[in-house]
Structure formats: structure tokens, C-alpha cells
Amino acid sequence: MAKAEPDIVGRTFRFAADVVRACSQLNKGSEEARILARQLIRSGTSVGANIEEAQAAQSKRDFISKYSIAL
Fold first, then answer.
1. I want to staple 23 with a disulfide (CB 3.0 to 4.6 A). Which of 7, 9, 37, 53 is the partner?
2. Among candidates 39, 25, 69, 37, which has minimal Cα distance to 51?
3. Contact at 8 Å (CB) between 51 and 37?
4. Contact between residue 44 and residue 53 where contact means Cβ atoms under 8 Å apart
5. 25 burial class (0-12, 13-18, 19+ CB within 10 angstroms)?
């Protein structure tokens, strides 16, 4: 079974944490900024979630399919 490189897992986790911190600042702004923050947090954290999902793939082909979504 294929596994993602450990470095990519850590990097996507740190990226998601950075996105959350940025969004907490955006939420202090205008209504438009809050709307953008909600979208940014969904898209910014989905990368790591998709990498984690790929880790549980049933086959190499399944891993490649799920991993490609994250990229």
C-alpha cells in the first residue's frame, strides 16, 4: 500500500494551521472578509484532510486517486 511522504503530512498540517490563524484575523474585519475567511478555511484545510484520506486507501490505485485530489 502506498503512503504519502511524512513530510507532506506535516507540511499540510502546518499549512492548515496557518490558514486557521489567518482566518481568525479576517473574521475581525468586514462582512466580506468574514465570507472570504469561511471559504478560505474550508479550502485551506481540505488539502490536509484529503492527504489523510489517501492514507486509508484500499489499493495503490485508490491512493493515487485520492492523493491527486489533494494536489
1. 37
2. 69
3. no
4. no
5. exposed
20-54 pLDDT tens trace: 999 999 999 999 999 999 999 999 999 988 888 88
Is the whole-model pTM more than 0.85? Answer: no
Q: How far is the C-alpha of 57 from the C-alpha of 55, rounded, in Å?
A: 6
57 Cβ contact partners less than 8 Å away, ≥ 6 residues apart: 1, 2, 63, 65, 66, 67
Q: Are 52 and 70 in contact (CB under 8 A)?
A: no
Tell me which CATH code domain 6-70 carries.
1.20.1440.60
Burial class, 51, CB count within 10 angstroms (exposed 0-12 / middle 13-18 / buried 19+): buried
